[in-house]
Design goal:
single chain; 363 residues; mainly alpha; Serine Threonine Protein Phosphatase 5, Tetratricopeptide repeat; 3-stranded antiparallel beta sheet; 13 helices; 6 strands; 7% strand
Length: 363
């Protein structure tokens, strides 16, 4: 088990808040794991200690109030869950502006009562004791004044029904996959949207690979359900994040790029889709080889995109080369006949529309 720094009498909640703030700021650029190491070195703390403080601030499983909901009324910075050894859990802004911390238990109780009074229908039956966990559904944000009773609650104009709000992102990802595999994509999408509610795809990278992979899965499911436009930012964010966290040619980054390409294609952004598929071909080639099934599948899909964009001769030539390579490398694979039929359809379309292509041996 990684060693932790021995608690010091000099530690204050403000010090903990500043350490967490510095870590999360760097995580938006480098990922959480790398950020923890950098901040630990700068503060002479063990990485395990910094990771523990950050995990407590970000965790949803046992949080008194959902992360991302509370803001300091004085400085407007997010308030995070902190705990000194032997003391109760409290909330303080990050970085600390000098205000007094507020009891986590008191905040939980006040917010739970507000949710039950204002939108009781959003808290499932039997979950009233966990009402604060469902606050992200009806509440946009809470500005915390000097005490737990001095709250300024901004209610959402359209409340949201949350799905499994206390799941960690890794557990949420597993749950969403199980729902999708069981033929319930709507439940999977809602669970993923709940988990990503306070992530910003226009900001820095995801803090960890589980969050980025959740965004990839959201994009894949939305495309399958015919709603690609709303997930274009999430697909791009997932790809940027996984490239930074795991490497450009990692399997996860390539899956995210494939999802991004599919989103652009279904949304009608054919030039962007073609660019993504071209990148995917290069990265699959580097990772698995030019004749690997993922590489050839990306080439075939790029050909379909080019044909959809009106570049039928280039599409036919690329698909003809891909069919030949696929037949040579994988003669009994089921995708071979499908590619051949797609090539025949392209040729027939050109004949039906009387395209004056020069006859070549390559298409």
């Amino acid at each position: 088990m990684p060693s932790r720094t021995r608690p010091s009498a000099e530690w204050t909640l403000a010090f903990l808040a500043d350490v967490v703030a510095a870590t999360l700021e760097r995580a938006a650029e480098r990922g959480l794991h790398a950020a923890i190491g950098v901040v630990a070195k700068e503060t002479s703390l063990s990485p395990a200690t910094v990771a523990e403080w950050v995990s407590r601030a970000r965790a949803v499983q046992a949080a008194p109030v959902p992360p991302g909901l509370l803001f300091c009324h004085d400085c407007d910075q997010p308030m995070i869950l902190l705990q000194l050894p032997g003391c109760e859990q409290q909330y303080l802004c990050r970085p600390s502006c000098g205000r007094a911390p507020v009891s986590a238990a008191l905040l939980r109780d006040v917010i739970a009562k507000a949710v039950l009074d204002h939108t009781p229908h959003l808290v499932p039956r039997g979950k009233t004791a966990d009402a604060a966990s469902y606050a992200l559904g009806p509440v946009q944000r809470v500005a915390v004044g000097r005490t737990a009773s001095d709250l300024h609650i901004a209610w959402r104009l359209i409340p949201r029904q949350l799905a499994k709000p206390t799941l960690s992102m890794a557990s949420r990802l597993d749950y969403a996959r199980r729902q999708a595999d069981a033929g319930n994509p709507a439940a999977a999408i809602e669970a993923l949207r709940t988990g990503l509610l306070h992530s910003d795809p226009a900001g820095g990278i995801a803090p960890d690979s589980a969050t980025a992979r959740a965004a990839t899965l959201l994009a894949e499911l939305a495309v399958a359900e015919g709603d690609p436009e709303g997930v274009v930012p999430w697909a791009g964010w997932a790809h940027r994040s996984l490239k930074a966290l795991l490497g450009v040619t990692s399997a996860e980054a390539r899956d995210a790029l494939k999802a991004l390409a599919a989103v652009h294609r279904r949304a009608g952004n054919l030039t962007l889709a073609a660019s993504c598929y071209s990148d995917l071909i290069r990265q699959n080639t580097e990772a698995e080889g030019p004749r690997a099934l993922p590489t050839l599948a990306a080439q075939a899909t790029l050909a379909l995109v080019l044909h959809q964009d009106g570049q039928c001769l280039s599409a036919r030539q690329l698909l003809a080369r891909t069919v030949a390579a696929h037949l040579h490398a994988h003669p009994h694979h089921r995708d071979g006949p499908r590619m051949s039929r797609a090539l025949d359809r392209m040729r027939n379309t050109c004949i039906e529309k009387r395209h004056n292509h020069e006859s070549t041996s390559s298409d």
